[in-house]
């Protein structure tokens, strides 16, 4: 079949894979190739067990794989044939040198740009899908233009706002699509080519076009604002625990003001995920590098508050369990950074487990999707059991800590769990998802986040 256009995506990860699957689904006249330097990943994308779990993804991939969606390791051929190249390689926080711990590590991006120059034989649109520091496009253009081969590369920014666990829904019905480009004729034309892709299924008024720098910065700011809401409510949860106010009631009362809005106000053990911390630290680094220290400090507090919330959770477990957890079994319910994903990147569960192990607790971890990643994250640490069955995980335990808000944890038989645990039995609900009064009546000592404790010691 003759395709109208060829799209290539470099990077078959959490963002590249689902995004390209939906583009291919909605644009049958375009051929979409997804490449990755990791051959195992590509093998998984071509198998029955995809490398990532996302509700709805399997069905889409099954439907169009081999028709207009292809996963391959043929990067060179892919670059040659493509009209539009999305780059969705990872941009982790730098672990070395200038900006270590804060700035984005752009080495994969630069390597990818060099590969594009090497193999391209005609003009191409390069789309930044990875989250990048503002003005990265400028650096990329310099690299791409340095080739002197009379090929024109137009760089467009198209940040991804999908959240894990709801990626397919977010891609099919996004709040908005953002496309940033240069504002000259060539830039506007390139932006239009990207608008044309999304216009296949998204109303034009939801497709926002801006200049390149606004688009790059908007992505960082969007994540910073979302994370800030969580740190704000979490900071108040600490105050609630001292004053007998209830964070759920406060979130409802405050969020009912339509100017504030109700989303992202769930107090928790803290936010995780590959993006929030990385993107805020990146924002902080950029502000610092322009000498805007007050701006940097302001956003840095969002990350610090998140760390405080995680530490506070662990301290509370230790304090309430009579100041020692040594040799006590603690069941960690949920290891993923949020429900409906197997992803554990920056999951609060990692920090919580490590701290409890330092206190010589014995840990059993259960999670419906993330046990594989948990084993990798905690490799080399002793005194941990991994249990697929939450009832097994809780058997003989002194305490349960709810760390991920998996729906199934709401519906377990807590009477049965209580009977199998050591007494006094504790539940630390780090997500406020359980029926605390019922648990208290069963006999548990219950410690929610930002709500009064229910314990039998008073
Ligand atoms: C993406 C973005 O890249 C990141 O900037 C954003 O903040 C979050 O979303 P994600 O898809 O989650 O990252 O990353 P990951 O799942 O690690 O996927 C990146 C893929 O790129 C990996 O499969 C990796 O093998 C591949 N890769 C990396 C390449 O193909 N080439 C490289 O040079 C480097
Ligand atoms: C986020 C952004 O939402 C998305 O737009 C962007 O593209 C990537 O980063 P993601 O990290 O996948 O997506 O998940 P998100 O749903 O935003 O949750 C992030 C973290 O915040 C999770 O650990 C979650 O449990 C936590 N969270 C979220 C809370 O603690 N309370 C809330 O009210 C909401």
In CATH terms, what is the architecture of the largest domain? 3-Layer(aba) Sandwich
How many domains, in number, for the residues?
A: 2
Largest sheet: 6 strands, parallel
| Distance between the ends | 75 Å
CATH topology-level name of the largest domain: Rossmann fold
Uncertain regions spanning at least 5 consecutive residues: none
The best one-word shape is elongated
Give the radius of gyration: 24 Å
Structural class: alpha/beta
Bound molecules: uridine-5'-diphosphate-xylopyranose
CATH hierarchy class name of the largest domain: Alpha Beta
| Assembly annotation | single chain
Strand content: 5-15%
CATH superfamily of the largest domain, by name, is NAD(P)-binding Rossmann-like Domain
Helix tally? 17
Number of strand segments:
14
Please explain how this structure is put together.
It is a single chain. The protein is 43% helix and 14% strand. The chain is of the alpha/beta class and 458 residues long. It folds into two domains: 5-202, 3-Layer(aba) Sandwich (Rossmann fold), CATH 3.40.50.720; 246-458, NAD(P)-binding Rossmann-like Domain (Rossmann fold). Strands 3-2-1-4-5-6 form a six-stranded parallel beta sheet, sandwiched between helices. A six-stranded parallel beta sheet has the order 11-10-9-12-13-14, sandwiched between helices. Strands 7-8 form a two-stranded parallel ribbon. α9 (212-243) crosses α11 and α12 (293-320) crosses α13. The termini are far apart. The relative contact order is 0.08. The model has no long low-confidence stretch (mean pLDDT 95). Bound molecules: uridine-5'-diphosphate-xylopyranose (UDX) (2 copies). One uridine-5'-diphosphate-xylopyranose binds at residues 160-164, 223, 226, 230, 264-266, 268, 271-273, 275-276, 337-338.
């Amino acid at each position: 079949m003759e395709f109208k256009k060829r799209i290539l995506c470099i990077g078959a990860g959490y963002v590249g894979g689902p995004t390209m699957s939906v583009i291919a689904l909605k644009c049958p006249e375009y051929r979409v190739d997804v490449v990755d330097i990791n051959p195992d990943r590509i093998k998984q994308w071509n198998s029955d067990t995809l490398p990532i779990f996302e509700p709805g993804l399997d069905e889409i991939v099954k439907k169009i794989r081999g028709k207009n969606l292809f996963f391959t390791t043929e990067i060179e051929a892919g670059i040659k044939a493509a009209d539009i190249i999305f780059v969705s390689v990872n941009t982790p926080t730098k672990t070395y040198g200038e900006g270590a711990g804060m700035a984005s590590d752009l080495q994969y991006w630069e390597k990818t740009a060099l590969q594009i120059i090497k193999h391209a034989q005609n003009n191409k649109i390069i789309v930044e899908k990875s989250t990048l520091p503002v003005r990265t496009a400028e650096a990329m253009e310099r690299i791409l233009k340095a080739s002197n081969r009379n090929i024109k590369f137009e760089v467009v920014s198209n940040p991804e706002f999908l959240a894990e666990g709801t990626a397919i829904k977010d891609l099919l019905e996004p709040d908005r699509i953002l496309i940033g480009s240069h504002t000259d004729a060539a830039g506007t034309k390139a932006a239009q080519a990207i608008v044309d892709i999304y216009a296949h299924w998204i109303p034009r008024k939801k497709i926002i076009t801006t200049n390149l720098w606004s688009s790059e910065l908007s992505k960082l700011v969007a994540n910073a604002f979302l994370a800030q809401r969580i740190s704000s409510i979490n900071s108040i949860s600490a105050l609630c625990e001292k004053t007998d106010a209830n964070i759920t009631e406060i979130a409802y009362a405050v969020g009912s003001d339509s100017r504030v809005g109700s989303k992202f106000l769930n107090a928790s053990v803290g936010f995780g995920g590959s993006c929030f911390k990385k993107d805020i630290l990146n924002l902080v680094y950029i502000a610092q590098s322009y000498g805007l220290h007050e701006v940097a400090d302001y956003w840095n507090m969002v990350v610090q508050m998140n760390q405080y919330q995680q530490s506070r959770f662990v301290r509370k477990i230790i304090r309430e369990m009579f100041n020692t957890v040594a040799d006590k079994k603690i069941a960690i319910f949920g290891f993923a950074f949020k429900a409906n994903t197997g992803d554990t990147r920056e999951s609060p569960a990692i920090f919580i487990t490590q701290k409890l192990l330092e206190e010589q607790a014995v840990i059993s971890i259960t999670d419906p999707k993330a046990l594989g990643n948990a084993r990798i994250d905690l490799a080399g640490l002793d005194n941990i059991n991994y249990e697929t069955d939450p009832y097994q995980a809780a058997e003989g335990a002194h305490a349960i800590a709810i760390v991920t808000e998996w729906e199934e944890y709401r519906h377990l038989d807590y009477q049965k769990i209580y009977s199998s645990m050591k007494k006094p039995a504790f539940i630390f609900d780090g997500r406020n998802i359980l029926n605390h009064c019922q648990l208290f009546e069963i006999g548990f000592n219950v410690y929610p986040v930002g709500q009064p404790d229910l314990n039998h010691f008073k």
